[in-house]
Design a protein that fits this description.
Distance between the termini: 41 Å
CATH class of one domain: Mainly Alpha
Helix content: over 70%
Largest sheet: none
Strand content: under 5%
Length: 780
């Protein structure tokens, strides 16, 4: 096994190495191509620069030639201007000379026109060449920049690959050292295995002799003592009592007890959820204490009031199932008869859910149609309606699978044993689905409650009822999660325990055979107890007859008492339901009483403060009236009240003169506080300026250091490019050495495989020889 793992590991490493090698070659080709392209572009740039210089020289020569021609044209124009007056004076003397001058002028004009056209054409060519050169230069520069970027990226890839190659080389070297150590340990193990094989051969001989002697004894006992083999036919074998497995029964009872606790929590949560939902219908969207609720909600509330009669039997059915699993029974699906009653109770509860579902959906629609219902609240109500449908569907699915599990105890052909495992897994999936649905209900109902609490018409009763419903939904979610995880953790044990039954057969054939087996088990247990107990003295016949009459009378009275007990138990259950209902009502009434007490206390406080304010206002009115009379008598001006600090200083009381010293103290304190505030602001501004100056100074230093580091990095880049070329050469050499090492290691592994195969052959030969010796011993 170790050699096969090593071979697979080295094959994977060889494949990775070949892939990396191919990638390295491709990257090398790409780098070489980019270098060639950059060199070609540099050569093209040089050629363009040379052509540009040539054109500039030609342009300079042409401008110089144009200047010369312009000067010559000016001289010719001057000569023409001088020759014109002379021609006017000498018209009569020389017509021939004028004709010559006109011919020369026409020749000069043609020559000048040609030079001007040539100059214009050269200017156009030069401008076009200059524009083209600039365009080509810009393209070449952009292309050079992109090529430099690509070269840098390729260089970074090459650096990464070199690092990766070095790391792989180090890993392979470490693996080589580990494999050498492992090969040494394997050699030691091989030696130990040889010694163990010798010991095993000796033990095998001893065991073979012992088993052969036991087989002979058992065969002789079977032939002498067993007249009838009842395990040959499955119908007879199903009646045999299996070996009692007390550990299995205790485990099943423990699991049933845990399931009972979870079901009790679930029943409690369902009772609270339905009860608080009934209370919510009574107060929202219409409070029944103020106005009558709709007939739909009345009917829905009436149905919800009956929830305990459907939810309580679930707990009772699970309790009966738990009590049926005892230490003395055999717990399989064919013997769990009480599972059928639990399935029936679950069916009745699902009928209850189906009955209240349309009313619940219509109630949510009625809430959506209310005037204060917002769009967010309407969306939450729609989500809750979908969740309620999912909850009913999940319960139906769960009831279907539990009904299937209850079939083997009532109908023999209702469910095949091959389908037990699939049904149990589907039960676990249904429980997980129930947990998911309850999480969605908790999430959506919490959002709905927060939106309703923000409504202006939300009463404290509605808020407390919503909190109670949320707590019950959270309890249901936790209970569903616990029971789903509990079932998924124990589903493997359930599947394995289904085969617990008679040996050498497919198990219990039918519920009738299972019941017969349990009766035989009880009889066998009673017989064993009877063997241990001493026999009691016999009762005389006459005394037995008298006792029989007394027994019959006691049984009749016992039946009557049993009926009375049953009736009293039913009354007790009804009274407990009413007790829970009235306890919830008492809690709500207590909350209302506390709120009313608080409200009356607040009202008393407000009335007492209002009376005090009224008395103060009356006293102030009397004082102001007296002040006005005194003012009219003495003609003293009334001071004007102001809310500012200076205005406060001008107030007077009882028409007395203002206190000068107190006014000065107030002004002094005001200005001192203002001075302190201004000095603190000034200090803060000074500290900020010093901080900004230090930051600017530090940034300038960092800029200088960055420039220096830029230059150093440029130099390092040059050195790194040189090192890259050197490392590429070293990489080729290391690859070759690594290939040689791999070939050597593969040869070593092949040799190890050969030695291991030889050892296996030796062990096989030893086993064959031991078998031959055993056969010889048998023949002897």
């Amino acid at each position: 096994m170790a050699s096969a793992e090593l071979q697979g590991k080295y094959q994977k490493l060889a494949q990775e190495y070949s892939k990396l090698r191919a990638q390295n070659q491709v990257l090398k080709k790409g780098v070489v191509d980019e270098q060639a392209n950059s060199a070609a572009l540099k050569e093209q740039l040089k050629m363009k620069d040379q052509s540009l210089r040539k054109l500039q020289q030609e342009m300079d020569s042409l401008t110089f030639r144009n200047l010369q021609l312009a000067k010559r044209v000016e001289l010719l124009q001057d000569e023409l201007a001088l020759s014109e007056p002379r021609g006017k004076k000498n018209k009569k003397s020389g017509e021939s000379s004028s004709q010559l001058s006109q011919e020369q002028k026409s020749v000069f004009d043609e020559d000048l026109q040609k030079k001007i056209e040539e100059n214009e054409r050269l200017h156009i060519q030069f401008f076009e060449a200059d524009e083209q050169h600039k365009h080509v230069e810009a393209e070449l520069r952009s292309r050079l920049a992109t090529l430099e970027m690509e070269a840098a990226q390729h260089q970074a890839v090459v650096d990464g690959l070199t690092r990766k190659y070095m790391e792989t080389i180090e890993k392979l070297q470490n693996d080589k050292a580990k494999l050498e150590v492992k090969s040494q340990t394997l050699e030691k193990d091989a030696k130990e295995c040889r010694l163990r094989t010798e010991e095993c051969q000796l033990q095998l001989k001893n065991l073979h002799e012992d088993l052969s002697s036991r087989l002979e004894e058992s065969l002789s006992i079977i032939n002498e003592k067993v007249p009838f083999n009842d395990t040959k036919y499955s119908q007879y074998n199903a009646l045999n009592v299996p070996v009692h497995n007390r550990r299995h029964q205790l485990k099943m009872r423990d699991i049933a007890g845990q399931a009972l606790a979870f079901v009790q929590d679930l029943v409690k949560g369902l009772l609270n959820f339905h009860t608080y939902t009934e209370q919510r219908i009574q107060i929202f969207p219409v409070d029944s204490a103020i106005d009558t609720i709709s007939p739909l909600n009345q009917k829905f509330s009436q149905y919800l009031h009956e929830n305990a009669s459907y939810v309580r039997p679930l707990e009772e059915g699970m309790l009966h199932l738990f009590e049926s699993i005892t230490e003395d029974t055999v717990t399989v699906l064919e013997t769990t008869v009480k599972l059928k009653t639990f399935s029936e109770h679950l069916t009745s509860y699902i009928c209850f859910l189906r009955k209240i579902l349309p009313y619940q959906l219509k109630s949510l629609e009625e809430e959506c149609e209310a005037s204060l219902c917002t769009s967010a609240l309407r969306a939450r109500n729609l989500e809750l309606s979908q969740d309620m449908k999912k909850m009913t569907a999940v319960f139906e699915k769960l009831q279907t699978y539990i009904g299937l599990l209850a079939l083997p105890s009532t109908e023999p052909d209702g469910l095949l044993r091959t389908n037990y495992s699939s049904v149990l897994t589907n039960v676990g999936a249904a429980l997980h689905g129930f947990h998911d649905v309850m999480k969605d209900i908790s999430k959506h109902y919490s959002q709905k409650a927060t939106i309703e609490h923000e409504l202006p018409t939300a009463t404290q009763k509605l808020i407390t009822t919503n909190d109670c419903i949320l707590s019950s939904v959270v309890a249901l979610t936790n209970g569903a999660g616990k029971i789903a995880s509990f079932f998924s953790n124990n589903v493997d044990y359930f599947i394995a325990s289904l085969s617990y039954g008679p040996k050498t057969a497919s198990g219990f054939i039918s519920p009738l055979s299972a019941e017969c087996m349990l009766q035989y088990k009880k009889k066998a247990a009673a017989y064993m107890k009877a063997l241990r107990k001493p026999l009691l003295e016999s009762v005389p016949y006459e005394e037995a007859l008298a006792n029989r009459r007394v027994l019959l009378s006691s049984t009749e009275s016992r039946e009557g008492l049993a009926q009375q007990v049953q009736q009293s138990l039913e009354k007790i259950s009804k009274l407990e339901q009413e007790k829970e209902h009235w306890m919830l009502e008492a809690q709500l009434a207590k909350i209302k009483l506390e709120k009313e007490n608080q409200r009356t206390a607040d009202k008393l406080k407000s009335t007492s403060s209002g009376q005090a304010v009224g008395v103060a206002q009356e006293g102030a009115a009397v004082v102001t009236a007296a002040g006005q009379e005194d003012a009219s008598a003495k003609a003293v001006p009334v001071p004007v009240h102001s809310t500012s600090l200076i205005g406060i200083l001008t107030r007077t009381s009882d028409s007395k003169a203002p206190d000068v010293e107190s006014r000065e103290d107030l002004i002094r304190n005001h200005y001192m506080a203002r001075i302190v505030e201004l000095t603190s602001q000034l200090q803060l501004a000074d500290s900020k300026s010093v901080h900004f100056y230090a930051e600017c100074r530090a940034l300038s230093k960092r800029l200088a250091l960055a420039e220096k580091s830029k230059e150093a990095l440029a130099e390092e880049m040059k050195v790194a490019s040189q090192n890259n070329s050197r490392l590429q050469d070293e990489l080729t050499t290391t690859k070759r050495s690594y290939e040689d090492q791999l070939s050597m290691m593969s040869d070593h592994l092949c040799s190890m495989n050969e030695t291991l195969s030889k050892q296996r052959e030796e062990i096989d030969t030893l086993k064959m020889s031991s078998k031959g010796n055993s056969k010889k011993n048998k023949s002897r």
